[in-house]
Amino acid sequence: MEGIHFDGRVAIVTGAGRGLGRQYALMLAARGAKVVVNDFACGPDGSPAAENPADDVVREIEQAGGVAVAAKHSVTDGAQAIVDTAISQFGQLDILINNAGISGGGWFAEIPPADWQRMIDTHLDGTVRMSRAAWPHLAKTGAGRIVNSSSNASFGAPFTTHYSTAKSAMIGLTRSQAAEGAMAGITVNAVMPAAYTRLTAQIPDPILRDYLATHFPPERVAAFVVWLLSSGINGEIFSVGAGRAARVVLAEGPAALATEDTPEAWAALESQVMSLDTMRAPLSLMDELCEHLEDLGGEAAGIAEQIRNVPNWKP
User: Fold this and answer.
1) CA–CA separation, 3 vs 99, rounded Å?
2) Do the Cβ atoms of 138 and 94 come closer than 8 Å?
3) 163 is catalytic
4) pLDDT tens for each residue of 102-130
5) Which end of the chain is more exposed for a tag (fewer CB within 10 A), N or C?
6) How far are the Cα atoms of 55, 74, 166, 190 from residue 152, in angstroms, in the given order?
C-alpha cells in the first residue's frame, strides 16, 4: 500500500472491542501493523458484561489478511499483562493508543464516591499504568508513539464532573509525557474525539444523537489518529470528528500588573484580568514562566532571556 503504513510495527489499542478502539485497530492492521486488541468485558459504565468483543475484532483483522491477538485484561490492574502480550507475541512494541474508557453522569454533589473513583481509575490511572508499562519498550525502538484520549468535556460540562476531571487530566499528562518522551524518541499526543459510539449513544437529545450517528462515525476520527501516529508531532492535543480537526491549546490573555498588593488594586484591574485580547498559548511550564517574567520586565525579563537561551532548551 502506498502512503502511510506501519509494516514491521506493533501496536496496542486499549478498549478496542468496539467504537473508536475497534476502528483504530482495524485501520492500523490494514496498514501493516501487528495489533494487540485489548478489551475488558464491561458495560458502558464499567459494570461487568458477559461478552467480550476482542476476539471478534481479531477475527475481522485476520480475515482481512492482518495480524492481531486479543488481550482481555483491564487497564486498571492488567496493564503489564497487556504489554507482556505484545512482547511475547510479537517481540516489540512501537505504538500505544490509550482509548479504554467508561461513561457516567450525575450532579457533582451526588456522584457516589465509588463511581467517581472508578471513572478516575479507568481514564487517568489506566492511561498512566499502560504508559508506564509500555514506556521502556517504546523507548527501545527510538521512535515510540503514544496517543491518549481526552475529551471536549475538558472545557467543562455539568452533570459529568468526574468524567471531565479525568479527561482534562490528559492534557497535563500528555504534555509532560511528551517533554520526557522526546529524550527517548517517544512522541505523545492526545485527541478529543467526537464520534458516535455506544457511549455517545446514551446522549438523551434524539436530534443530536441521530446527527452524530449519521455524520460522526468512528472511522473519521481513526483516519486522523493513524496519520498522527505517522507524524513527528509531539505534545499536542487535537479536537477531532466528522472530518474536522483543530489544535487545542491552553491560552492566556494579556497580563495585568498591579502597583499595590491589595484586593482593591486587583478590583480596579478586573477588566484587564478578564480580557481575552491578544491571547498567548504557552507550550510548556517553562514557556509560561518566561512569559510571566517578561511581563514583569527589568531583571525578571533578563532572567527569562537567559532561560530561553539555554542550549537545546525548547518551550
Assistant:
1) 25
2) yes
3) yes
4) 988 999 999 999 999 999 999 999 999 99
5) N
6) 31, 25, 12, 11
Strands (E), 183-267: 187-193, 237-241, 244-248
With a cut of 70, list the residues of the chain below it in pLDDT.
1-2, 43, 45-48, 50, 198-204, 311-315
Tell me which residue of 58, 52, 103 sits closest to 78, measured CA to CA. Answer: 52
- Which residue carries 516489540 as its cell? 92
- CA–CA gap between residue 58 and residue 66 (Å, rounded): 9
57 Cβ contact list (under 8 Å, min separation 6)? 16, 17, 22, 25, 26, 37, 39, 68, 70
Q: In angstroms, how far is the first alpha carbon of the chain from the final one? A: 37
* Strand arrangement of the beta sheet that strand 187-193 belongs to: 67-71, 34-38, 10-13, 95-98, 145-149, 187-193, 237-241, 244-248
